[in-house]
Write a structure and sequence with these properties.
This protein has helices at 2-5, 7-22, 28-45, 52-66, 68-75, 81-108, 113-138, 150-170, 179-203, 214-233. With 234 residues, the chain is mostly helical. It has a single domain, classed as CDP-alcohol phosphotransferase transmembrane (TM) domain (Four Helix Bundle (Hemerythrin (Met), subunit A), Up-down Bundle).
Length: 234
């Protein structure tokens, strides 16, 4: 949802920053990689150690930094297909690291199996939601929409983790467990989004067309050629 309603306002901020970064000699791909490496490093070191507040601050900063690669590409006249694949791949790696770090914390710091379950549901569905759209588009179908996309997912998990960390770091009791409802809300909404995307694919034009296997076509052509040869020899 945020990716639709927030795109225009964000572009007004990111466009000048993208032009400024281009002047430094950085490329969009290098910005993608920097943002991903720092996000992953913070997620797998700070979250498991219980530094939810500071980990969230670092991750939020570099998630925002990673958003600038698209602005840089647009300022250069457009991105490349490789850049798009790299960006999507790095997004999946970063998401996996964030939920993986929180899952580690849920087990070894909180010792809470229910929080672990919610976190693992979020981890799996975050990958499935993105894969369903990519696979559908590769097949010429549509899987747009759904309640939870990546920006929504990041806002919910980072707000939940950050406020929980702030509550525990600064001694604010009513904040120190917000990660629990945040992860369960995200888990439920993510499962719903998976179903929404599968149904969107099912409704797409051509979704129920029979896939003709290449070997079947080749086999039919070979049979026709054999028949033609026999007719010619007779």
């Amino acid at each position: 949802m945020l990716s639709v309603f927030g795109r225009a306002p964000m572009s007004k901020v990111t466009a000048p920053l993208g032009r400024a970064l281009n002047s430094t000699g950085l490329t969009p791909n290098s910005v993608t990689l920097i943002g991903t490496v720092v996000t992953v490093a913070a997620a797998v070191t700070m979250f498991p150690a219980g530094y939810l507040f500071w980990g969230t601050m670092v991750i939020t900063l570099f998630v925002l930094f990673d958003m600038l690669d698209g602005a840089m590409a647009r300022a250069r006249g457009g991105g490349t297909k490789y850049g798009a694949v790299l960006d999507a791949t790095c997004d999946r790696v970063a998401d996996g690291a964030i939920f993986g770090g929180l899952a580690w914390w849920a087990v070894y710091s909180e010792d809470n199996r229910y929080l672990l379950i919610a976190t693992l549901v979020c981890l799996v569905t975050s990958q499935v939601i993105s894969y369903a759209k990519a696979r559908a588009e590769a097949s010429g179908l549509s899987a747009d929409g759904g309640w939870i996309e990546r920006p929504d997912r990041l806002v919910i998990v980072l707000v939940g983790a950050g406020l929980t960390g702030a509550g525990r770091h600064f001694g604010i009791p009513w904040l120190d467990s917000l990660i629990y409802p945040a992860m369960w809300v995200l888990a439920v909404l993510s499962v719903v989004t998976v179903v929404q995307r599968v149904l969107a694919v099912r409704r797409s034009e051509g979704a129920r067309d029979i896939i003709v296997k290449p070997e079947t076509v080749v086999g039919n052509d070979r049979d026709q050629n054999d028949q033609g040869d026999q007719a010619g020899s007779s």
